[in-house]
Amino acid sequence: MNFNLKIFILLTFIITGCAETETAAPVTEDVKKAVGMVVTANPVATEAGLEILRAGGSAMDAAVAVEATLSLVEPQSSGLGGGGFMVHYDADTKTVDYYNGREKAPMGATKELFFDENGEKLSFRMAKNSGRSIGAPGAVAVLNLAHQDHGRLAWSELFAPAMRHSVEGFSISPRMHNSIVSSEENIYKTPEEGPTDLYHYLFSEDGKPLPAGYILKNPQYAETLKIVASNPADFYRGDIAASIAASAQQMPNGGTLAVSDIENYNAVKRDAYCSTYRNTTLCGSALPSSWVSVSMVMSILNEAPQFSDAGADDPQNWTLLAEALRITYADNNQFIADDDFVDVPIKGLMSDAYIKDRAKLISRDGANNNIVSGDPWAYQDQQASLDYGKDATLDTHGTTHFVIVDAQGNAVSMTATVEGYFGSLRMAGGMVLNNQLTDFSFDYEDADGNPIANAVAPGKRPRSSMSPTIVLDENDDFLMAVGSPGGRNIISYVAKTVVGIMSWGLSPQEAIDLPNMVARTEQVRIERHRAKPEIIQALRDYGYNVFESEGEISGLSAVLKLDDGTLEGGADPRREGTVGILYDDEL
């Protein structure tokens, strides 16, 4: 229709209307409001979560559906053969709970777990790609525990999306295909090398990695889901437990994980750790996660020289963030571990006095080249029974994060993982099995003979960098949820995003899109193609050895509640994340 003709018709309508009623009724347009949101690393999983929210499910209900689906469509990162940490916000009670589904070392594990028969330490590659690295999985137990507290729909209903995609098939995503290709040389292809289930699942009959777009079915996983949907306890006994243990023990390079280790696994609910940043409350996962380190970064920034109003555009603001990260990582390497087994100075690390003293290490004049771990024990009454040495544990990037907010204001922030890409490279029941035990220190003492807090022990959970976060406003109402995969870099990724939103006034997507910067030592890594040249130069002028990386492997997900109550989300373009919206007219 011609534009002038449209105007003529509209004016005719208005004039006619005025002649009949003397005042024209205002023309209003219904605006849909985002009242629920699902942000995951894969569009199929995002839609699975939305399907549950549209059916009247809670954020927790949707979380079960999301992780069950991610186990299928993103097996390189997480799944029911792995574990994770979750924080949940309850809108009725205005409380945040922490759910620990971290894998446990088998009772047959010793401090020499990653040493060979000659007493030589295994390479990380050899340790990861073996049955020794498999811990008792925690994903099903932790989802079930949290669902008992916060579920609305029946547990059995929550696996329908994942079961449907298992039977009908799903399209292999480009990222999953790239992960298959990058893992090809490590995946067992003959029984002499190790179990070949993963090879036969991900490769064609002529030995080629399955391409992106290939419709992949997983009937074995569908059978596992059927059992779990009927009774989650059956994951930890019977055929599923037996198949997990058999895969872990299979030679060569078998481990000690036994059916009894799986039967005795338990997830744990505890109070979340919380601290303040400006006029908000930050809450996150307790030990053995590293969320306390995210808290420390933000608390140090409260006390350090303040950011300028220029936000992300001021290069000096990035130097302040880098120094806070360096200070925090020094303490993380020294102290963070499973506090059911070792003494951790958590009160000291989070004390106002300790934070203020650590913040004094930051100067606008230049980088501090003498940053080492502090003495948080001096800031609390309880003292360590042993002096622990510095740990240099490696962890890799086979992890995922998702955020879900329902229409009632309840929220889930969960980081889930199988540890490295495709975990241990072993499968059971259609699931990839984790290599979580390589998150322990391979060494059990440092060069001076001091014990390592994160050393292997039977039944112990390894330290993790995972840091799922929920932020509350001054009224303790939900304000934001955020988290990321990324191994040791998670602390940096999450802190950057919280700073971007809370301090620099950015939207969730804008904050996620900021260059990732990782500062653990005098070397600072920053994304070359996302960081402005003046920021990189400012970091060098400040005194850092700057490494311009081609890409960081974050997978950030974030949801922010705006002043009018609507939700705004952000998903990481570095992976395949998507934001799914539940509108008010869908309720």
Describe this structure in words.
The protein is of the alpha+beta class. It has 18 helices and 20 strands. The protein has helices at 3-21, 43-54, 59-73, 124-128, 139-150, 160-168, 174-183, 197-202, 219-230, 238-249, 259-263, 291-303, 315-335, 346-350, 352-359, 490-502, 508-513, 533-542, and strands at 34-40, 83-90, 95-101, 170-171, 215-216, 268-271, 273-277, 280-284, 398-405, 411-419, 427-428, 431-432, 469-472, 478-483, 517-519, 523-527, 545-549, 557-561, 567-571, 578-583. It has a 7-stranded antiparallel β-sheet with strand order 6-3-2-10-9-1-20. Helix 12 crosses helix 13 (315-335). The model is unreliable at 1-28 (pLDDT under 50).
Key words describing this protein structure:
587 residues; Serum Albumin, Chain A, Domain 1; 2 domains; 18 helices; 20 strands; globular; disordered N terminus
Number of domains: 2
Largest sheet: 7 strands, antiparallel
Strand content: 15-25%
Alpha carbon gyration radius: 25 Å
Helices, by number, come to: 18
Record field, number of beta strands: 20
Distance between the termini: 36 Å
Care to give the gist of this entry?
The protein is of the alpha+beta class and 587 residues long.
List the helices and strands and how they pair.
Elements: H1 3-21, E1 34-40, H2 43-54, H3 59-73, E2 83-90, E3 95-101, H4 124-128, H5 139-150, H6 160-168, E4 170-171, H7 174-183, H8 197-202, E5 215-216, H9 219-230, H10 238-249, H11 259-263, E6 268-271, E7 273-277, E8 280-284, H12 291-303, H13 315-335, H14 346-350, H15 352-359, E9 398-405, E10 411-419, E11 427-428, E12 431-432, E13 469-472, E14 478-483, H16 490-502, H17 508-513, E15 517-519, E16 523-527, H18 533-542, E17 545-549, E18 557-561, E19 567-571, E20 578-583
Parallel strand pairs: 16-17
Antiparallel strand pairs: 1-9, 1-20, 2-3, 2-10, 3-6, 4-5, 7-8, 8-13, 9-10, 11-12, 13-14, 14-18, 15-16, 18-19
Helix pairs in contact: 2-3, 3-5, 3-6, 6-9, 12-13, 12-15, 12-16, 13-18
